[in-house]
Here is the input.
Amino acid sequence: MQKTIVNSWNEWDPLRHVIVGRADDCHIPPRSLRWMPPRDVLLTVGSEMLEATMSYRCRWFEYLNYRPLMQQYFDEDPNFRHESAPKPRLTDADYHPDYLSEKIGDAKRLAWAAKKFFVTTEEEPLFDAADVLRFGRDLVVQHGFTTNLKGIEWLRRHFPDHRVHTVNFPGDPYPIHIDATFTPLRPGLILNNPHRRLPDDQRKMYTDNGWEIVDAATPAHNTPPPLCYSSPWLSMNLLVLDPKTVYVEKSEVYQAEQMDKLGMEVVEVELRDAYAFGGGLHCCTADVYRAGKCEDYFPSLSILP
Ligand code: DAV
Here is the structure.
């Protein structure tokens, strides 16, 4: 068998090797170490795989699931770098008390999100890997419930050759992970959740470099399936196979239609019954190898003023 090579710099280059999460032995609520979405834990940047700090207490041990694979990649790929972000203490000081109380309505939540007042505090660096999107030299990170500003600062210091950008999507009352909100499809094209639009003052790097941000199609469902904690916008939690081909969940007919109109070949995958285990096609996978190298998709940022 061919030896593993770890190399992936963005969300769209031709995918050759991917980790696919399994829901075997899962319990809701979680009772054991097994949980599904590898995307939430593992951040692949070039030949490095970085284990995120995570910010939910119940996910503190999740990295252990992937250690056998990490060991295998370490043995097989002489360039592979296995990294782990400092494990957080996750004491009460990490969370605003009563933030998630059911007495707080959506209007208040939206006002809090607009003010960037989230459930997590700035006690220590926190991030989930699924809050990060990779665009070659640029990393785009959502500041929200699962990633705080110290977490983003930690990433900036950890990846000194990258530009790290903080983004917010004020329309989201529960900003957890960027991958049902902002989905790059290929160089120059990003889907954005129309209920969570990127604010105008954060669009400059995209418009200056010829990137188009289009509204994603409406999900085919009004509600998530039973026991699923994500929103119906898992419709846009796509997995790009290469800049012309995309995996779309089989029941998400409007999303598939939009992909077709945008010139992408659609491959349907039935996954909705697994949403309860942590998410859609992007969530339940983690890149190991995509053909291609680190490129600069935002050259205007390199020009000094
Ligand atoms: O819209 O509920 C789900 C993202 C899961 N990784 C949402 C975000």
Notes: Residues 130, 176-177, 179-180, 230-231, 233, 279, 283 surround delta-amino valeric acid (CB under 6 Å). Residues 15-294 form a domain with the L-arginine/glycine Amidinotransferase; Chain A fold (CATH 3.75.10.10).
